Amino acid sequence: MICKLCYNKLTRLLIKCGDSMLTIYDPLILYFVLNLFCFIIVGITIITSKSNFKNSNAQKVFVIALSVLLFMILMDTLYAAIDMGRIKKITVEVAYLIKNLYFICGLLSGYFWFIYFEMTIKSKFSETGKSILYSSVLVLVGVILLLINRYTNFMFRITIKDNGAIIYERTSTLWFAIFYLCIYVYVFFSSARCFIFARKKEHYVEKQKFAFVGVIASTPIIFGILQLVFSRLPIVCAGLTLSTFILYVYATKDQVSNDNLTDLLNRKRALRSIERSIKTKPDENTLYVVFMVDVNNFKSINDKYGHLEGDKALVITAEALTKVSTMQKRKMIVGRFGGDEFLIGAHLDFESEIDIIKEQINSELKIASESKEYELVASIGYAIYSNELNSIKDLIEEADKRLYEQKILIEGNEKS
User: Nearest CA to 186 among 240, 245, 227?
Assistant: First the structure.
């Protein structure tokens, strides 16, 4: 009872604050300025994302989702002008068309964000065209509801008074809720899936990444609730614009830190991460080991099968290293050093774990390349942090030295 009273008081206060804002400013001007700002932000984000992001399916879906949001903002602004009586001599058909296009944009936004987040977490669902097609069924259901509503008005009605004023009213809260459910099911599943993936991840960085994406995925629900309170402000459009911009900034930052091909940390970020990690030893007895991993006969793969296949070999190697890192007791730093060389930083309890990790890497490479016409094998060098090897430069040089000693030994055995 007390909670209900507090809720009612808070709702009335929010409505009063919203009404106070609208008495100070012309409602349409405020609406137009907010939507214009959103339109510019989304437009700039579309242009910059095309040039800054790597050309992936996720990036393409991201741009499509932004384009839908751009059109949604335009329709929202047009209908606001009609609803506030600033556009005269409009027919009911045109008013319905603009309102329905706005709602369809909402459906498509939910759908494309769902697909984008599935691609972000690299789920198996997003890898099959049939799954992506079947998941659009809620968009179809929503469109059918809007078409039926045009002739039955079972969800909402738009009428024109004698003075030319446009009146919009909901005729059934239940059916309207069902329609919005078609949108928010996408939102709910996107958020839930991201949080589930975050829980499954072993490493803090990955947990943090997917948890953040999950929070962003859930924000349309909050903005939808606020829109019900502040019905004469473009809360949904402004909220979605803010969410997509934050997501864009996060993705750009992630891309600056990550290697474009393998999605591992790039050289600069990996070296910095290892330097920080060395300073945070769990205890004095812990060893800090830097591994250098080099793909054997990588040049011959490029020469025989082409550079595209060479790129695939590097991606397979990166995935194998990532998998091995998840097998360990503590977080390992995995990055691409350059070319066919990779860098790993790890806290270990015993020196004997070094050989175990080396064996795990080549074992995973062998399994991962079973379907290929070539077998992936890596030469691995390592260096242990000590009083003599106390800088990242010294550790890299020592690990590199051992790497090439092993490489020469392997090449000698192959010749003999």
Answer: 240
Position 160, amino acid: I
Question: pTM of this prediction?
Answer: 0.63
Which two three-digit tokens encode residue 354?
């070094």
List the beta strands (DSSP E) in 325-391.
332-338, 341-348, 378-384
- Please, are residues 40 and 245 in contact by the beta-carbon 8 Å criterion? no
Which of helix, strand or coil describes residue 261? coil
122 secondary structure, DSSP code: T
Q: Count Cβ atoms below 10 Å from residue 331 Cβ, excluding itself.
A: 18
CA distances from 163 to 27, 88, 302 (A): 20, 10, 75
DSSP state of 41: H
- Say which residue, 234 or 370, is predicted with more confidence: 370
Residue 1 has pLDDT above 60, yes or no: no
User: Rounded to 5 degrees, what are φ and ψ at 300?
Assistant: -70, -30
Residue 292, φ and ψ in degrees, nearest 5: -115, 125
Residue 381, both tokens: 């060098």
DSSP 205-246: HHHHHHHHHHHHHHHHHHHHHHHHHSTTS-HHHHHHHHHHHH
Name 331's Cβ contacts closer than 8 Å, sequence gap at least 6.
202, 203, 204, 205, 325, 347
Distance (Å) of CA 77 to CA 36, 235, 244: 9, 12, 19
Q: Please, what are the domains in the chain?
A: 2-257 (1.20.1070), 267-415 (3.30.70.270)
**Cβ contact 363:371 at 8 Å:** no
Give the SS3 label for residue 162. coil
- Dihedral angle of Cα 349, 354, 358, 359, to the nearest 10 degrees: -80
Tell me the per-residue pLDDT of 213-256, one tens digit each, with 9 for 90 and over. Answer: 777 777 777 887 777 777 677 788 888 888 888 877 777 766 66
CB 139 within 8 A of CB 181: no
